[in-house]
Amino acid sequence: MATLAKDHTQLDEVAATLGIAITPLTSNIGAELSGIDLDQPLTDAAAEVIRAAWLRHKVIFFRDQDLSAESHVRLARLFGELETHPVIPSAPGYPELLIIKGEGFEITAQTFDKAQAYNKWHTDVTFRERPSIGSVLRARHIPAVGGDTIWADAAAAYRGLPDAVKERIEHLEAEHDIVRSFGHRVSDEKRAEIARDFPPVVHPVVRTHPETGERAIYVNFTFTTRILGVSEAESRELLTLLFDRIKVPEYHVRWRWTPNAIAIWDNRVTQHYAVADYWPNPRTMERVTVTGDVVAR
Ligand code: SIN
What we know:
By secondary structure, this protein is an alpha+beta fold. Helices cover 30% and strands 26% of the residues. The chain has helices at 2-6, 8-17, 44-57, 69-77, 112-118, 154-159, 163-169, 178-182, 188-197, 232-246, and strands at 21-24, 31-34, 59-62, 82-83, 90-91, 94-102, 134-141, 149-153, 173-176, 201-204, 206-208, 215-217, 224-227, 252-255, 262-266, 270-274, 283-290. The strands form four sheets. Strands 1, 2, 3, 4, 5, 6, 7, 15 and 17 form a nine-stranded mixed sheet that branches. A hairpin with a 2-residue loop joins strand 5 and strand 6 (94-102). The mean pLDDT is 94. The structure holds succinic acid. The site of succinic acid has 9 residues, from strand 7, strand 16 and strand 17. Succinic acid (SIN) binds at residues 100, 124, 135, 137, 149, 272, 274, 285, 287.
């Protein structure tokens, strides 16, 4: 798989023999795949191409995939075991199928804090000891305008750091806490429950991808609270620098959703941001999240 992912000519050729076209969307990150019906069980060869394209492009997209809940869950299982979420609700009868609803809002002086609370760059569930390796997101109800999602290539962002910063962060670790993000969205009781069930965890500031060997920034604005073993001021300074690097547009792919479009991302080397610019219309997405591994330096 990783070999196929590294040899991009071979990957494209193997995909073509199956009728699958892989169209890169930027030089760093993102590709759209066409010529495949994800509502049907996949052959081993097609599954291998999808996994290799996912490793190579970090986030892959499909359009017009009117998946049943069963097919959505089956597709996500190509990547591993599935997990539920302690706060985000799920579809009746499908505990792993998370329903992500948004209403969007205009950012004004009054709502700026809300925007900072809801629209945030993140890697999913880094508050877990074993954060998810990826997710399969399906657009269910899409507003007429707005509501794109942006993904950042955290490996390209790492490569672009000055050497002195790379050296400084090489052996550092950071704390990640669910309460930082979800604490304000839930009742006091629920906050106490998630704080008890998910005490802060520590991950390296830079991780190595277990399949591709790429190194990537592994702190995110949503869950990372501080870098350990340095002063509070240095922690803040380094985190601000790393969070800012993730925001650089050259590391991004921006996806315009259409109904039943699908995104599958590698959560180990990406961060994402759902743009809430679609008020007053609602937006509903469905996500299945794949259980992860211990984060290795
Ligand atoms: C997510 O953060 O997993 C969902 C992204 C989105 O709603 O676009």
